Prior knowledge:
Layout: E1 5-18, E2 21-34, E3 38-42, H1 49-56, E4 65-74, E5 77-78, H2 84-90, E6 95-98, H3 102-105, H4 112-124, H5 128-141, H6 147-150, H7 160-173, E7 178-182, H8 190-207, E8 210-215, H9 218-221, E9 227-232, E10 235-241, H10 242-247, H11 252-259, H12 300-304, E11 311-312, E12 319-320
Parallel strand pairs: 3-8, 3-9, 6-7, 7-8
Antiparallel strand pairs: 1-2, 1-4, 4-5, 9-10, 10-12, 11-12
Helix pairs in contact: 4-5, 4-7, 5-7, 7-8
Amino acid sequence: MEQxxxxxxxxxxxxxxxxxxxxxxxxxxxFHVAEHEVVAVVGESGSGxxxxxxxxxxxxxxxxxxxxxxxxxxxGENLLTYNQKQMRNIRGNGISMxxxxxxxxxxxxxxxxxxxTEVLRAHRKMTRQQAWQRGIEALAAVGxxxxxxxxxxxxxxxxxxxxxxxxxxxxxxxxxxxxIADEPTTALDVTTQAQVxxxxxxxxxxxxxxxxVVTHNLGLxxxxxxxxxxxxxxxxxxxxxxxxxxxxxxxxxTLGLLASVPKLDGDKNEELVPIEGTxxxxxxxPEYCSFYPRCPYATEECxxxxxxxxxxxxxxxxxxxxxxxxxxxx
Length: 330
């Protein structure tokens, strides 16, 4: 049985207008998330992953940023037609976002309880007492010990992992249908990373929440994601199920990301293979394939043609944008 699509983004374009020119951070990006699905968006820093999700939430700072086109369909409504008041009803209620660094997302001068109850009273129209009790329940649900006492703590009195759990608790308390987790494990130790990811997965299992995990770490999400979108230079260059991307990658950039992930069953003396070079300047993206300067499989033909479109690979739901695809080039 086919799952119902909860979020569908079509041809999204977001640019930042700077002294150096137009920076095309999101360049014709399309993706979707079904109900109860875990989707990962993977790519290096500066590939447009976070800006894509901020565009979905209409949180792009303007100026210098501007959403230039596209559609963002959520529960049958195009969010890009919404004004800021309407979007405030969507944020927290329908879609919650967990930002990269919880210390900057949580206000340091208010207690955790104050911030949790404020969100609940705004989105769930609860009394102060009801919101306080729901906040305690939410902290308990994300595994924070002694939640009543923790409600009275300030963010700086908590560890990074605990603060990240508070951010997840806010999403739990609001019963959001979709959670966008932007680099949710950045700056956390490996054990805490696993705990945070397991906690997010429990929301899918227990509450039927859909989750988008944005990360530069392909190894982190292969265990959890149903599908993966690989982004490079503001575009999606490959998409498919996790199994398809792991067993049959069809874009050289995906191959490079996989080669740079350490393997538990590999030779411990084996060196990781980096992707040579650096990502392109998004203010000067070439007309041809943006991965061309770093691609070990590129030919002169790649430079003569326009940027390749996403094309089916022959496997259902698997797409890649590479001129060499299907030619036995890699």
